[in-house]
Design a protein that fits this description.
- This protein is α/β, with parallel strands linked by helices.
- 32% of the residues lie in helices and 26% in strands.
- The radius of gyration is 21 Å and the shape is globular.
Length: 383
């Protein structure tokens, strides 16, 4: 079986994998391996980018092209979080700029489209690749139909999303936040509806989020406990519509029309124990595979780009600087994880008016447990 040599093999071609492929020099030989993408309807969750993302997109040489896309600039957010009284949060105060809401599926396709002119190879296969580490290189076997191809590279990058396929295959330890389920639906709103504000509400059995997206679309989501039986009833259109009206009475929903089925997916957070990685493994982990954010943080897509750019600096380094770059990357990932855990723990403790409800007690106890278990070692990466 012939073997093809690469500089980097990336497992996963979502936003993190595609961003890494774009961040590397054009003469870097890059192979991406991913499962075939099914045709999706509706909107993908994870549609927000802060203004700081533009610096990352500039590093990918995509800044002007991104600004030319039909994204919506983030505007004022109305929140009923710490109390039942709405208060405004204005992103214009962010020194990096207000940021954007975007069509997540379109954004991912856009990133992929920019890979091909730079010579990146993408192989889609429904079969699970095989992996082995020998003589400082990764050996990867890929089955396509009846054929099996071998590939070799000094660097392997796990960008396989929240399921972290490579990291789990290697038995790398992970921590897990409390269980969280997202129930969401998309609406078509009339052209005269100019309300572009976001809405965030701490409710008795979870929290609601409503956001305006490009293309006369509004997405509404409830994040709740998967053990709470009420979420199953919410998949019935009438029950869902009534719950949305009760949770978000400030929105005029009289002319909204459901544009897709009410969907449910897991939204809980998890992360890699970064201290379990070694510099001589030739392994990097980026995006959700390394740190899968709670949707409340609104940082998942930004982290996909940021962790990809950070990983590219490790791969670019050579000789003695390579070990130094890897250690700096590991410390950065530890620091990002630590700051995130402190922030999300505080965020779930903020709504005092619902603090005695089961959902909020479960989240608060769960995050407190994670913080105690993780932050003690996360600041002390291995040598």
């Amino acid at each position: 079986m012939p073997t093809t040599d690469w500089d980097v093999v990336i497992l996963g071609a979502g936003p993190a994998g595609a961003a890494l492929a774009l961040a590397l020099p054009d003469d870097c030989r890059v192979l991406l391996i991913d499962r075939p993408k099914p045709e999706r309807t509706g909107i993908k969750i994870g549609e927000s980018l802060p203004g700081a993302a533009l610096r990352l997109l500039d590093e990918l040489r995509l800044g002007p092209a991104f600004l030319a896309e039909p994204h919506l600039e983030r505007v004022q957010s109305w929140q009923r979080w710490q109390t039942t009284v709405p208060h405004a949060v204005d992103p214009i105060r962010d020194p990096e700029g207000p940021g954007w809401h975007l069509d997540r599926a379109r954004f991912e396709h856009w990133l992929r489209d920019h890979m091909h002119p730079r010579g990146r190879m993408l192989v889609e296969t429904a079969s699970a690749p095989s992996f082995d580490r020998r003589d400082g290189h990764w050996l990867i076997g890929i089955g396509i139909g009846n054929d099996r191809n071998a590939h070799r590279a000094p660097w392997l990058v796990d960008a396989s999303g929240r399921y972290a396929k490579m990291s789990r295959l290697l038995g790398l330890p992970r921590w897990h936040g409390p269980a969280l389920q997202c129930v969401h639906a998309c609406y078509t709103v009339p052209s005269g509806d100019e309300d572009a504000a976001n809405h965030l509400v701490a409710d008795t059995d979870g929290w609601w989020y409503a956001v305006r997206l490009p293309g006369q679309t509004r997405m509404v989501a409830l994040h709740t406990d998967p053990q709470h039986l009420h979420w199953r009833d919410l998949r019935t259109t009438g029950v869902w519509q009534a719950a949305v009206r009760q949770a978000l009475p400030e929105l005029d929903q009289s002319r909204w029309h459901l544009s897709n089925d009410i969907a449910v997916f897991p939204a809980d957070s998890s992360g890699l124990d970064w201290t379990a990685l070694r510099a001589d493994q030739g392994l990097l982990v980026i995006g959700d595979a390394g740190l899968c954010f709670d949707p409340l943080s609104a940082q998942g897509l930004f982290h996909a780009l940021a962790s990809a750019v950070s990983a590219s600096r490790v791969i670019r380094a050579s000789g003695e600087t390579s070990l130094h770059a890897w250690r700096r990357w590991q410390q950065e990932m530890c620091s990002v994880t630590n700051r995130y855990l402190m922030h999300i723990n505080d965020a779930y403790r903020a709504p005092r008016h619902v603090a005695d409800r089961r959902f909020w007690q479960t989240q608060q106890d769960g995050w407190a447990s994670v913080v105690r278990a993780v932050t003690g070692y996360i600041e002390r990466p291995a040598a």
